[in-house]
From TrEMBL:
<dbReference type="InterPro" id="IPR004394">
    <property type="entry name" value="Iojap/RsfS/C7orf30"/>
</dbReference>
<keyword id="KW-0810">Translation regulation</keyword>
<protein>
    <recommendedName>
        <fullName>Ribosomal silencing factor RsfS</fullName>
    </recommendedName>
</protein>
<dbReference type="InterPro" id="IPR043519">
    <property type="entry name" value="NT_sf"/>
</dbReference>
<keyword id="KW-0963">Cytoplasm</keyword>
<comment type="subunit">
    <text>Interacts with ribosomal protein uL14 (rplN).</text>
</comment>
<dbReference type="Pfam" id="PF02410">
    <property type="entry name" value="RsfS"/>
</dbReference>
<comment type="similarity">
    <text>Belongs to the Iojap/RsfS family.</text>
</comment>
<keyword id="KW-0678">Repressor</keyword>
<comment type="function">
    <text>Functions as a ribosomal silencing factor. Interacts with ribosomal protein uL14 (rplN), blocking formation of intersubunit bridge B8. Prevents association of the 30S and 50S ribosomal subunits and the formation of functional ribosomes, thus repressing translation.</text>
</comment>
């Protein structure tokens, strides 16, 4: 399965479960860990876990074997490592605190301002 297809599958699975503020960030060239990050908010720990569970179910149906899953026991922030796609489901307050969107987009803006191509 292509990375873009996996992103679309994850986003659809999140939207099926009423995820809030689903965001996709292309991090190719910014990190060697993954190519895409999908970030979504849930309204409670139960909702955050349900979002992650649905993504896991849908990707497994397509033959994708997740590399890892962390945070299911707490439900404040669940990270699903699908290899070239990492899915973060978070409670709104946790998402605002860590602000991953600003972190990853800020790296891009910083490189542009300084004219560097850091990886």
């Amino acid at each position: 399965m292509q990375n873009e297809q996996l992103v679309q599958l994850a986003v659809a699975a999140l939207e099926d479960m009423k995820a809030q503020d689903v965001t996709v960030i292309d991090v190719r060239g910014k990190t060697s860990v993954t190519d895409f990050m999908v970030i979504a908010s849930g309204s409670s720990s139960r909702h955050v876990k349900s979002l992650a569970d649905n993504v896991l179910e849908k990707v497994k149906e397509q033959g994708v074997r997740p590399i890892g899953c962390e945070g299911m026991e707490g439900g404040e922030w669940v990270l699903l490592d699908l290899g070239d796609v990492v899915v973060h489901t978070m409670q709104t307050a946790t998402r605002e605190f860590y602000d991953l969107e600003r972190l990853w987009r800020g790296a891009e803006q910083s490189r542009a301002q300084h004219g560097t191509d850091a990886e």
